[in-house]
Amino acid sequence: MSIDLSEYKKKLKEKKLPKFKAAAGGDMPGRIANLAQYTETTENNYFTYRNYHGTVNGYVERKEAHETNDGKKKFIPFSLTEDGKWESKAWPDNRCLYNEHLLKLHPDLPVVISEGEKAAAYGTANYKDYVHVSFQGGSKAPDKTNYQHLKDREVILFPDADDAGKRAMVHVAKILIEKEITYNIKIVDVEDLPDKFDIADAPMHQEINVPGYIAKANEFDPDKYSKQWKEIQKVEDKKAVESEVEKFLKMYIYIRSVMSFYELENKELLVKQQINDWNQSDMKGENLCNKLLDHEDLTKAHSVFTHAGMKPGIIEVKQGEFEAINKGIYYNTYYPSNIVAAPGDVTDILSYYKWLLGETNWYWIEQYIAYMIQFPGSKMRWAPVITSVEGGGKGLLAKLISAILGHHNCNTQLMYEQMVNQFSNVLMGLQFGIINELDLATKKNVKQLTNKMKKFMSDDTLTIELKGRPQIKIPFFCNFMIFSNDEDCLYLTKEARRYLIIAIKHSQDAINEKLDAGVKDKILDALEFGSKELGHLLHHFQKVKIDDPKAFQRNAPKTEDFFDLVEKGRPMIHRILDERLENNQAPFYHVDDAWVRGEPKYKKNKTTGCDERVKGEFDYFETRMNFSGLVVAQDLHEHIILDPLLKNEYCTRDLLIEWCKEKSTPWPNGNPTKQIVLPQGSYSRAYLIRDYEVEGQKISNWTEGQLGSHYYFHTFDRKKLDLQGRLDWVRNENKEKQTNYIEPKNKHGFNL
């Protein structure tokens, strides 16, 4: 009964086999060329490897034990290098069988596989009822050979009469079965043959009937050789692991500073568990990262950075060469673009962007792109901000820049949240980035959010902090552009230095009309991989004259769009207060020469005869309230909270202080605020918003007490004045009676 070998087949991972050149006719190693005509005989120790079609693939020189210095047999292979030169080296994999060409000549004959070219050559010469083949490399390398041309053939395994020989043939059988090459496999029983006997030894053992042993070969039963099968599997698994490790050595480097591996293809830092989990199935239960760390060929570096002006790969950094990092071995993740610059006409594309952005704005963008190309690795201190309606053509510009610089060095889809995340490494490995769809104006803390972004534009170092790993600083040479569909996407003051603001004014219809006229097709053609147009654009920017290279190390140019954005980006409460101040509206309502005056009441003390102030009582002139010209931030804040039209606006005391600083006139001593003394004796700090003239004198020249009385009586209404007077009386009385007196406060936390 035949054995069903199909259950032993194994689903193997498809392996891409290397390709090797075959020897040209007559092109042989010099040391064997003179004996090549005899290589089909056993009279000498030179053997020719021909593939299935008869093309010479290589040679093997055999030296017997008595011919070597160490008394051991040697096999010296010869193969062709990729550039067509012979070398004393075997093919690493995918080797052809010795005598493989005979399989094509004799398709119907059974195949005998023996160990060693000499045995196969002897069998070919003497036992012609079979095709005799062998594999290169002996008992330790049967897996290096490609057995595909044995498909569905009858195969008889003739092992050497020793343990290594039998294990080698079991290995061959395992390959034939698992790869589903053939199940028609027999194996010669060599148990009673002399030690180490093979077919080539037949002349020395005339008593052994080799054809008889072949004819009596048994059907191969894997269960009979289960021990060897398992041992072979362990070796195969080990080799597979070693092969995987060799592959991964080219994919990862180890970064000491963050105790992580850097994946070269994706430019990403990965912890050990990420790598181990992802590749677990390939590692046969082994720990990949430990294997990599133990391997002497693993590339290790102190840290990584990206510099377009330095060679890619491992770089030795000198002390003081870069800010904030020590000397040592670093990995430069930058890889040059494969774009080849060449002269060519790109007028239509450039003219479109000149029209889209405006001639002056395009000048700066052109200079900016050219600077990145002509001064690679140089950090610019400001970034262009381009705003437009959605679909305004910004995306195509981003793609063009990215294609010219190399997509692998760029990220055109950076998000603000990614950049400022505490544990983000999204900026690693970048030469250029575009912060897309930026809109900070709608967020309450727009100022703080905008300030967070400034460091990316100007700082020479980047701080990276990954979960569970040390925080590190690396040199940072990435340049940026910012795209947004919102004109007021940032909070900027007129002192802002880091942004070139460009607002595209064209409508969507006008933009589409331009693009549909043929420009879009030309841009898309340029974006095609390997396009000549991209090379033309690169050549253009290489030749652009940088009028002032130092301009990119100074403040950003101020455009009209910049000042518009400054205004639009101001907090809403600032804009409302601006409008009320300008339009003479509460709390800044003012009528010239209509000052409200209040005088305290006094009466004579019957005992002392002296005038004493009547606590809680004032005489008032009846008139309208008037803006004093002074602002106390906390009082203004309370007014806004109580104002039915303003109470729902986002407002903080800090925002009001900012507004006061912006709108105020410095006091004569140059300070932005001045202490004033209120009638009840308390102190406040006031900003001078309007330096009114009262009774012929500027209020800026008044004393602290005069300012306090003036501010008080022109800020609060009569009802509140009466209340304040009563509170003053109560407060003073309590102060006299209580050692630990606490000032009363209203519901908003202010002193009453």
SSE map:
Layout: H1 30-33, E1 46-50, E2 56-63, E3 74-80, E4 86-87, H2 100-105, E5 111-114, H3 117-126, E6 131-134, E7 155-158, H4 163-178, E8 185-187, H5 210-215, E9 218-219, H6 226-249, E10 252-255, E11 260-263, E12 268-270, H7 272-278, H8 288-294, E13 300-301, E14 303-305, E15 313-317, E16 328-332, H9 347-357, H10 359-374, E17 383-387, H11 394-405, E18 410-414, H12 416-420, E19 432-435, H13 446-458, E20 461-464, E21 472-475, E22 479-484, E23 499-503, H14 508-527, H15 532-543, H16 560-568, H17 572-582, E24 598-604, E25 611-620, E26 630-631, H18 633-642, H19 653-663, E27 673-677, E28 683-688, E29 693-694, E30 697-698, H20 704-713, H21 718-737
Parallel strand pairs: 5-6, 5-7, 7-8, 10-13, 14-16, 17-22, 17-23, 18-19, 19-22
Antiparallel strand pairs: 1-2, 2-3, 3-4, 8-9, 10-11, 11-12, 15-16, 20-21, 24-25, 26-28, 27-28, 29-30
